[in-house]
Amino acid sequence: MSAPRIAVGGVVRAWEGADRTGVNVAYVRSVLAAGGVPIVLSPLLGPSYAARALDGVDGLLLTGGEDIDPAWYGAAPSPHLSPPSRERDLFELALFAAARHRELPILGICRGIQLVNVALGGTLYQDLPTERPGPVAHDPGQARDARSHAIELEPGSRAAAALGGTSLTVNSFHHQAVNRLGGGLVASGWSLDGLIEAAEAPAEAPWLLAVQWHPEEMHAEARAPERGLFRALVAEATRVGEQSRATSPRVGAGSDPASWTSGTAVDHSPR
Cα torsion for 113, 238, 3, 165, to the nearest 10°? Predict the structure, then answer.
């Protein structure tokens, strides 16, 4: 049995005088620790190569990063919006649509849950402190691996199964979050102020799970419950990969933005 290949959405950053593309090392370490082979995909590939980039891949990990452009869900930008990356938005929306078309397992983290929600017709809070102030600090300014607030998970959900329980204290550093949930998603985790912290596809649908915190930052903690999220992704990717190889190779899904609906995503033309 070969290790499944997990596509990991990357970023483009200016660093030390040069533009570079890659991903936070914590995501790579988390996938490796779970038994998967991480394949980093740069947004520079663009939406036209999104489907081809998934050839030979068994699962998809959507990572954290920039704010999502509110134009995708028909909202005017908040003055507190951090600069979005249209290049990354376009690539990951196409990547998500192609992965859904192929019924690949998908794990979304922080920006990942927001991207999934928007792709399926949902909306976001652009800035929690100004749009939804509450008693829970979702960006407390602590170390990336510092557990800062509690969440509760729906019993029997994919999230609870992967994390091994229904209560958890998580690390948190974000100012955007899910507002109206997208079609085909079920909320399965909440912070104590009622903010959605986990969402997933129904049990009968292809495996999809997304969380608002940063489980990858717990990779160095041998008994961290968050490791279960990556093990669940890799386990499902192994099953899907073996099933695919036992039948026939997948045909590449169209990645023309006009085809993004495909029963899994909505029209993302800016409004």
Answer: 60
- Quickly state the pLDDT bin for 248 (edges 50, 70, 90): low
The predicted-structure confidence for 216-226, as pLDDT tens digits, reads as follows 999 999 999 99
Q: Is residue 270 part of a domain?
A: no
Enumerate the active-site residues. Answer: 110, 214, 216
- Please say whether the beta carbons of 186 and 199 come within 8 A: yes
The first and second tokens of residue 89, run together, are 């938005």
Tell me the residue type at 113. I
The verdict on residue 268 lying in a domain is no
Question: Three-state DSSP class for 8?
Answer: strand
* Domain enclosing residue 121, as ranges: 5-259
Give the total number of structural domains in the chain. Answer: 1
CA-wise closest residue to 104 among 41, 42, 26: 41
What CATH number does residue 161 fall under? 3.40.50.880
